[in-house]
Automatic annotation (TrEMBL):
Stated name of the protein: Kynureninase
Keyword Transferase: yes
Description of how the protein assembles with itself and partners: Homodimer.
Cited function: Catalyzes the cleavage of L-kynurenine (L-Kyn) and L-3-hydroxykynurenine (L-3OHKyn) into anthranilic acid (AA) and 3-hydroxyanthranilic acid (3-OHAA), respectively.
GO molecular function, one term: transaminase activity
Length: 403
């Protein structure tokens, strides 16, 4: 009788299987299950980086700024917007880190709602989001209203409707929760916030490149996210920020810098912002740091976000099947949604003492992610993870919890 947990049929039916060979192998790693935290490097990135240093930077020198580098933040922003964010051109820019862009966008948002004194977020939002919002509130005399959410789920439209009011300037959540993988109902939440007269800022760090996003269709106002998770841009790769087109004329970048000027080479006194989303830039674009990201976006364009999402759903469903069969009988709990329409790209498993298993797991070549208290995040990346790899990693975990 066939083994229902055999990974071979899943891999045989995987239309994205060939992409696995286009990532750099990691010697000694049996299962890399942390793609939701740091994506694997595309194999072509090394040659592309060397070529950039040797040819683009090495031979063109400062002339490169006039040959494409200067406009790279907008061009690459449009690329990400079209491939992963459901954003029409002219609304997305690549720059800074997620934290810096969240600060810029949130500060700009509350400035667009004078007289309102509350920001709404949730207890399950990522720490940097909460820190940014608290800092803005402290500096401007605002109040942050935190909605308490279920750690195994996430924010709901009903909770948002009960929290927003005429005092709300900004509503800000993560589209995919970093702990549980919960996918928020972004269209409904955005509509509720707008009905209250508030603006909405979405953190897409755990969505981009894994879960389809439709910023324009949602009517989203602002969004930001990183590129080093499912977009495989590399550690510390620059983030992206989105501003809805009809807000661009009024939004003000709180971190003014010469790259965001209307005439950066005029060197004049007084600041006049650039037209369009470029006004959200501050300092020199991180050109070199975008090279691996460009390679990864080429793969995403080839695969298509729809196929990526379908494989992600299959991988997380398989992870849940393995967890139920192998781990739940040994006291492990699933702290993620069971509904595939509400589950993003990772599954969180909990059991007291999981922190002590990280050493043995790493020694066995299995690399998940850990988030206290007692949570292992299993984050298979659709383009680089096979079902056999997921099976092998959770098999090692089974032997440790059964031990």
């Amino acid at each position: 009788m066939p083994d229902p947990l055999d990974p071979a049929p899943h891999d045989a039916a995987d239309p994205l299987a060939s992409f696995r060979e286009r990532f750099t192998p990691a010697p000694g790693v049996v299962a890399y299950l942390d793609g939701n935290s740091l994506g694997r490097p595309p194999a072509a990135a090394a040659d592309r980086l060397a070529g950039f240093v040797r040819d683009d930077w090495g031979t063109r020198l400062i002339r490169g700024w006039d040959e494409g580098w200067w406009t790279l933040p907008e061009r690459l922003g449009d690329r990400i917007g079209g491939l992963a964010l459901g954003a029409a051109p002219g609304q997305t820019v690549v720059a800074d880190s997620t934290t810096v862009l969240l600060h810029k966008l949130a500060t700009a948002a509350v400035a667009l709602r004078p007289g309102r004194d509350e920001i709404v977020t949730d207890t399950g939002n990522f720490p940097t989001d909460r820190d940014v919002l608290d800092g803005i509130a402290d500096a401007r005399g605002l109040t942050v209203r935190r909605i308490r959410t279920d750690p195994a789920a996430g924010i709901t439209p009903e909770q948002v409707a009960a929290a927003v009011s005429g005092r709300t300037a900004l509503v800000s959540f993560s589209h995919v929760g970093y702990r549980s993988g919960w996918i928020a109902d972004a269209p409904a939440i955005t509509r509720i916030a707008h009905d209250a007269g508030a603006l909405v800022l979405w953190d897409l760090s755990h969505s981009a490149g894994s879960v389809p996003v439709e910023l324009d269709a949602w009517g989203a106002d602002l969004a930001a996210g990183c590129t080093y998770k499912y977009l495989n841009g590399g550690p510390g790769s620059p983030a992206f920020g989105y501003v809805r087109a009809d807000l661009l004329a009024d939004v003000e970048n709180p971190v003014r810098g010469w790259v965001g000027r209307a005439d950066p080479f005029g060197m004049t006194d007084g600041f006049a912002p650039a037209d369009g989303v470029r006004r959200m830039l501050s300092g020199t674009p991180p050109v070199l740091a975008t090279v691996p990201l460009q390679v990864s976006l080429e793969m995403l364009a080839e695969a298509g976000i729809g196929a990526v999402r379908e494989k992600s759903r299959r991988l997380t469903r398989y992870a849940l099947e393995l967890a139920d069969a192998w781990l739940v009988p040994h006291g492990v709990a699933v702290a993620s949604p069971r509904d595939p329409d509400r589950l993003g790209g990772h599954v969180t498993l909990t059991r007291p003492g999981f922190a002590g298993l990280l050493g043995p797991l790493h020694a066995a070549g299995v690399i998940p992610d850990y988030r206290g208290p007692d949570g292992l995040r299993i984050g298979p990346a659709p383009l680089s993870t096979s079902f056999a790899e997921l099976h092998a990693g959770l098999s090692v975990l089974r032997s440790l919890v059964a031990g």
